[in-house]
Amino acid sequence: MSAVLAATALLLAAGCSSGGKDGPGGGKSVTSGGTTPGSPSAPAGEGTRPAKGSVRVVRTVAENLNTPWGLAPLPDGGLLVSSRNDGTIARIDEKSGKKTELGAVPGVSIAGEGGLLGIVLSPGYASDHLVYAYITTDSDNRIVSMLYDAKRPAGNQLGAPNTVFKGIPKGDFHNGGRIAFGPDGMLYASTGETGNRGLAQDRNSLGGKILRMTPEGEPAPGNPFGESPVLSYGHRNVQGLAWDDKQRLFASEFGQDAWDELNAIKPGDDYGWPEAEGKSSNPKYHNPIAQWHTSEASPSGIAYAGGSIWMASLRGERLWRIPLKGTEASAPPQAFLEDTYGRLRTVVPAGGNRLWLTTSNTDGRGGRSTGDDRILEVEVS
């Protein structure tokens, strides 16, 4: 292992919708003490976090959003939110809830689970004002960047998209779609295997992978497979990426019929799909640190706060807390907001012990209520 890759492994060591199995939702505010179903993992590493946590919904930030998917807080205030089915990005004033449309992203093809998915700000946003987006086109899934100019008229604030990375397989299902910049300044993307299971184990395919690249879309230095953007493989459909305070990467993954997963990602490792779903006795596969029955989770976005991973669940209609000790769960996962706001899609740190949380009841699989979809501000511990 090269010195660069060794450093990368130390930095990183730390999974789609499940084909129409997601359930209905509701909507009311709540303070939740949580329940504790799930599968604990043996603790390892640094200090143990409290086994029990709490969640308090502070307020509803915005309502009446259509298929919100990606969420990116702006450094000067405001939240950018992508609409999967409209193919647009809007700015939400986090104080008043006012919505201002930036514009539509050209080239987006909306079908099935595809469309305008994850968004993230450039690491150099203060000077370059670039917004990155993961989009489905007529031919593939790809990552584009666009200039955001708030001085231009509403609806015309996005520049023409520049293709950063293309060729990710697309399908009606399992398109992945989360993008994030890591603490190393590299761009990470989660992809699905589009229902073609063999892609997940094919290291020459971009499907069923976590990818790591430069902001310009080139394979990142120190990647485990030479001049390849592939960081890890054997994934079914990853839609959540987050780093803890030790710069270790975690990812949530949709299972098929048995087990959804939370994984600690190690460069070059095989996470088992389709040969393994959930924990396996085969040592060649990297086991999840926690797993859930698909009816309890179907996880999308994740965030790190207060020593725990927080995981938004679609079919499970709840927010999961997974307290960490090193790269293992230190206690059984704990569920909050069960059957309260319906399907939960994206969770993003809001500073301190607060999170931004989006619902996903207008995507054709939820029981839509008055006011859906929403962005919530929640306080966690």
From TrEMBL:
One Pfam family, short name: GSDH
Entry-linked SUPFAM superfamilies: Soluble quinoprotein glucose dehydrogenase
Domain called Glucose/Sorbosone dehydrogenase: residue spans: 65-365
Compositionally biased tracts (Gly residues): 17-28
Region (Disordered): 16-53
Taxonomic superkingdom: Bacteria
Low complexity compositional bias, start-end: 29-45
Designated name of the protein: Glucose sorbosone dehydrogenase
